[in-house]
Fold each of these.
Amino acid sequence: MDKHYDPGRIEAAVQRRWEDTAVFRATEDPGREKFYCLSMFPYPSGKLHMGHVRNYTIGDVITRYQRMQGRNVLQPMGWDAFGLPAENAAMDNGVPPSTWTRENIAYMKQQLKSLGFALDWERELATCDPDYYKWNQWLFLRMLEKGIAYKTTQVVNWDPVDQTVLANEQVIDGRGWRTGAPVEKREIPGYYLGITRYAEELLADLDNLPGWPERVRTMQANWIGKSFGVRFAFPCEIDGREEKLWVFTTRADTIMGVTFCAVAAEHPLAERAARDNPELAAFVEECKQGTVMEADLATLEKKGMPTGIFVTHPLSGEQIEVWVANYVLMAYGEGAVMAVPAHDERDFAFAKDQGLAIKQVIAIPGKDFSTDAWRDWYADKESGVCVHSGKYDGLTYDEATDAIAADLEALGLGEKQVQWRLRDWGVSRQRYWGCPIPIIHCQACGDVPVPDEQLPVVLPDDCVPDGSGNPLNKREDFVNVDCPRCGQPARRETDTMDTFVDSSWYFARYCCPDNNDVMVDERVDYWMPVDQYIGGIEHAILHLLYSRFWTKVMRDEGLLKCGEPFQRLLTQGMVLNEIFYRHPQGGRISYYNPADVEIKTDAKGQRSGVLLKEDGEPVQSGGIGTMSKSKNNGVDPQSLIERYGADTARFFMMFASHPEQTLEWSDTGVEGAYRFLKRLWAFCVDNENIIKNYHTANMGQGLAWKDAPDLIKKLRHEIHTLLSQANFDFDKYQFNTVASACMKMLNVLERNPETIKGVSVTPADYGWKLLEESLSLLLRVLSTISPHISDTLWQELGYGEDILAAPWPEPDATALVRDEIELVVQVNGKLRGKVTVPADAAKEEIESEALANENVGRFVSGREIKKIIVVPKRLVNIVVA
RNA sequence: GCCGGAGUGGCGGAAUUGGUAGACGCGCCAGACUCAAAAUCUGGUUCAGGCAACUGAGUGUGGGUUCAAGUCCCUCCUCCGGCACCA
């Protein structure tokens, strides 16, 4: 054995062996229980970042754990290869996105390999491969046939200078990122997928996902947003014709309090009214400025204008004026709302602003409408009753809603309805680097689907975008085709699909990536669903919801047997690092990488100053933030691996915090992880002969643990307790405490050298036996986190050929039992002493022991004991007057 | 604005799920080794008081429930993630 721990050498050797023997290749085996462990595939942006390292380490730890539990494990990897950054890089460097993407994939793949992940690389896929995206197109056509996919108009961000559609990300403060021109909303045609058809099932099935974090399920449920209410109409007369203004409300019980109606700027009524009202037309235009981002819309100052159009209240017959308001969203419900300022926050603010009437129609016993905040009234559906509402007076929320819905229905003006917040999924993108939408536009035949036998529609991979729209429009060889129906010249659709389509089913394709005849084959039934999915919390809604939807579509198409793609979900937290900057007066702010900064501390270890290494002058701390290019606070995993090795990187990542929590970067923390692995190596070198001899000569074979000396029993108890805790934590995916359990085990062994070397025990073999067993437990637990060092030591010390084949260690129940336990004694809930009692001591015995404690006596004497609470195996609490 | 989450020593984080707050690690202090430094090892380290035994305070804020609250309930504050064309 090498005297020194040399991660570079041992990691390369171990990785080579794994590769040579193809140990991580997964094969279907119906006789064995499978475990499909999947981490979200990376976007090939150039090189791995710490978030990737964290994500894939978590996945790898779980994979290796399941493998040692005896499961047939699949852990694949691929590339989410289409997307905007490749187009940006193309603009910057003049290189086609395909070239840039392929180069990045090659580099990042080599990085992933150097981290020692137990991946089956034979199943690798990239979403920009025609073999992959062919099936996006194929399933899209199936959806088109079923009417799940359809064409309508969509509202997009439009840059009037570049004459191009902008992604939300490309809109900075309401302006185009390259031109600086104010962004406009524009309506263009596009394809949608009818995810709302599955809304009910997507919501209901959340209850069948106990392996998902509660918060993700809640977020999805809120996103889907099922609400019960009434859809009804205000009749009106427009240009001499009878029309109806439809609205939806969840508070039909307040219908008698309506004092105005509000519609979105895009609503037909608004556009009609704007026709002969220049002022209103200007306002409608103003509303169309800005972005389509909901976060921006929601924080806009509430503005509105009257249309001059009046509608008739369906129940009271009152004339109600219609307003255009910027807070009404065309995309939700009917794009129009009834306004009840007395009982709705936004309506109230708007009415106050515009001087509109506020009419109370709900009363809550014990509350005064004129003084209590309106807010409480709206939130409280339970205790209110109708007032000033004619025949509905005195009815509760439920009674009033039923009565009003019935009356509206009788008039043919409304009915109860379920409303969803979820909108259909717009998948058309006016961008080059994506999967072509398989449609051909023919003057005679209209929009014609590309026939299956012509799939895939291959994306030309040599375009270089220049920022002025989709370069596919200029590719005559791509655009000009014959209509598949009539044979006449036609134009190919140049929009590509949202990249979320690519990532909505890749997990199924991993099961059979080599089959080019079908989307998925029978192997998918063995592996799917994914048993454990791991990825960033930022994907909690969109990606996960789209994947669930796509899975259900595939199921209904007969391609999958399961309706949910991911059994268990782990959402990992972000990787953070401190931000350092200087902001010279009148100058530009500049950020400094933490690696270039030196932190001064005082005698207590508290920070006293932060200096830039280069010039020794102070820099400011901007707090902690996610690692990003813009804040220059990223740490390159590559340098970390080169300096300390993958095992250290992995260990630190797991040790620094719970997978679901944010992880704060720390150079010294990495040093600590490295120190631990070095210590472990040195410890094994030091005891190499004992363990080897033990294995070759079977020295402890005849010894039984039950006859061991007390000292051995005590240490063994400690080791097995730690193992038991590690196992418990493993189930909770709390790998930080698993890592610390490994450290604690080594601490126990290191602090008792006499015992494990057999110096202080007779027979000495008991010490060796304890050492051999403890290390075998430690190495196996550690092998999930830092596999290279564990594997190497396992082999070197003669435990076996391959730690991967070793079973997961379980604690020995007899080692966990103790004869005596220490109990905490409290007086009035405050810790006053400790007593040691037999494990099976009776309550009376424990009480008298506790009272006999000297320090306890000081707090009890002279006072009346009201009661004594004994919590078995924990504590005694003496309550005194 | 809406939805979701998090606040514990100088720092990252533990706390058997209502039962010893601060495990483990980092940093810092002292010591050993060394001509010296690095590395390594040993001891100490929540704050305040005390030579010590020990005592008091303490888990973002303010209140409540309980024999007992970091953990449960209510109020407020701060920070983070998502908001449908970033992935």
Amino acid sequence: MEKPGTFILEARDGAARAATLHTAHGIIKTPVFMPVGTVGSVKGVAPDDLEAAGAQIILGNTYHLYLRPGDELVARRGGLHKFASWNRPILTDSGGYQAFSLSKLSHISEEGIEFRSHLDGSKHLFTPEGVVDIQLNLNSDIMMMLDECVPYGSDYEYTKRAVDLNFRYAGRALEYYTARRRGNLLFGITQGGFFKDQREKSIEGLCGMDFDGFSIGGLSVGEPKDEMMDFLYHCAPLLPQDKPRYLMGVGTPLDIVKGIDAGIDMFDCVLPTRNARNGTLFTSLGKVNIKRREYAEDDGPLDPACPCYACREFSRAYLRHLYVSKELLSYRLNSLHNITYFLSVARRAREAVQTGTFAAFKSEMESIYSN
RNA sequence: GGUGGGGUUCCCGAGUGGCCAAAGGGAACAGACUGUAAAUCUGUCGUCGUGAGACUUCGGUGGUUCAAAUCCACCCCCCACCA
């Protein structure tokens, strides 16, 4: 077994890549989609569901797990893998995104990000160093640096200041971790808002540092889709070729395929699980709002091309009934399906890259989600 | 038979003279959701009309009034208690 962090590029098709990333809990085949399990649980499904769906790696969140149940408590339980009974790789986000999504409860300074807990209002300071410690306690395979996610609409001065601060956060996180390095990987997060020169500066600065991988943060934060794609295609090629590239928080099935097209290897998004709970299912035939009346007497499977338990065993009519009735099984089956589908999109993309048919796969996905 | 309470738009339920096509909730029908404070949120929800607006509606009938879901009379149902 290669040492954690080993990244092997296996195939390329245009800018799209197929690779393997070695971690302490196993090998990740990319492109990969990573289901989000913020508090140490992918909402609605159990680890055996995730394995059945083909999940290689899941996310956890530093901010949430630090607040509850506490990273030290998790450490005493033997780390997040053992605590949550998930033996495959885990990536933890740093909490930087929460400074953005919980901006009314947070304050960003040179020292770090101060939060008021959304649970009880208590104050907490996250520093680049402290966030590494928390993630070491969780023992995540891939740790993310504390970053400042620049909100859409921020002006140039604000963005520039954030990019500079982000650069200093990166240096502190890396220096701190290097002094106590174990088998965990630490990824840098590039920012830059919606100014290309700031994006370029952030990438140039971070990628000069010895991170194990690099991500693009701060996209899909409310900007128009065209703008997101413009920045994605501009930034992805600027990231190092020989390290994993991670597009944070993105996206729809088509976004993911376009991300791969731009040269991204890793994706995470709450969309498959959140939308599953809200009745929107992604299928090989496009988006299905399972609550719609038209499915009330539809005896066919949700997605005839999907091998998941929900599609194998149940009809659209039954899935609609479960959703409308707010049955707990609805959340599980819908989540299981969407996760299975997202994972299959990444897996098919990988196969397409390996066989040199990625362009055809991409246009197939574009036609499915054209409307 | 007596006394008291009640019948409101698909359901529950506010409303006791004009600001009422009628609060609120539910149901129904659509839509949103992108490093999860989200099993959440938004819209529509009498009919016709793009719209202004017009028309119909608060158990029934008749009446009072400029104006009635709201007041009066009678009638029809329902509930509780007493005989």
